[in-house]
Amino acid sequence: MDILLNAANAALHLAHDLRRDVEVGLLLLGPPHPPRFVRLEGFRLRNYQPDIRSNAALVRRALVDASRIERESSPGVFGSQANFDEALDRFGPAFVYAKESGKDIRQASLPADATFVFSDNEDLATTEEQALTERGALVVGLGPLALHTDHAIAILQNELDRRRV
Amino acid sequence: MDILLNAANAALHLAHDLRRDVEVGLLLLGPPHPPRFVRLEGFRLRNYQPDIRSNAALVRRALVDASRIERESSPGVFGSQANFDEALDRFGPAFVYAKESGKDIRQASLPADATFVFSDNEDLATTEEQALTERGALVVGLGPLALHTDHAIAILQNELDRRRV
């Protein structure tokens, strides 16, 4: 859970505000009730802190009694049941998959309004990579060393920030 | 404390190892017993986790009964009393100060074996900036938006990783 919450922080937090144009999807495939999918909408979030302990409570509330129909358990926090393929399709193309062997992001042409896909501390399964390939995902690398997910996301956001200036 | 521990994680952690060539200095100027200085040596650390809760215990132990003489409270974790100037001088030049208005790091010529200085969620005080200026610090910016310290450090490490390849 901490890995996901740190990743969400890197995607959403600026020093003194949230990135209101960011949506985050957290896919929980571990016990007790997989698959669970939590979606965070930056422009609707309230009370979303840099402190992952308080965010954990918000995310846990979204996991309770989740059904296939998405439900907003607190402002900007949506819980549902969805597997990997379904989670991808709720965000929709264009997909960009961050993987060490990918094309260097500084040289990559990135689609506008993309869905960026990161694994946690384990690589994606072969079937999950296939789902991305079938959806035409661009594969990008962020640097020469394998990093924690939250640090990789911070580097991605920096690259996007620089292109938007 | 969480800000410092997240910053230390960004400086030290790779996906599956620690950056053994990194030293981290955490300066605690808040109550109850300022100033406290904790130094982490990547190549000596044991049991240093991605989970900041377990690292908090290591750092807290280094804060107990700190004197001006540095003491290793657990492998690779050193506690002492030191103010901002003293903390700088324990690491020594060359200094690089990360600040939003600085020269873009991608264009900056960076010294080998530098000491990189980051503030927490508040900017450095004027006297602290003066201490850096007196020591000839290069001022670099990491991107167009103000970020949390840990995310800024992840971006710095990525830039250094790319130059070392």
Number of domains of chain A: 2
Mean pLDDT of chain A equals 96
- Give the strand line-up of the largest sheet of chain A: 1-2-4-3
Helical element count of chain A?
A: 5
Order of helices and strands of chain A: HEEHEEHEEHEH
Q: What assembly state would you assign to the polypeptide chains in this entry?
A: homodimer
Greatest contact between two chains: A-B, 30 and 30 residues
Question: Which class best fits the helix and strand makeup of chain A?
Answer: alpha/beta
Q: Which range does the strand content of chain A fall in?
A: 15-25%
Distance between the termini of chain A: 33 Å
* Rg of chain A: 15 Å
Q: Look up the CATH topology of the largest domain in chain A.
A: Alpha/beta knot
How is the topology of this model organized?
2 copies of one chain form a homodimer.
Chain A: H1 2-12, E1 23-28, E2 36-41, H2 52-63, E3 71-74, E4 77-80, H3 84-91, E5 95-104, E6 115-117, H4 126-134, E7 138-141, H5 149-164
Parallel strand pairs in A: 5-6, 5-7
Antiparallel strand pairs in A: 1-2, 2-4, 3-4
Helix pairs in contact in A: 1-5
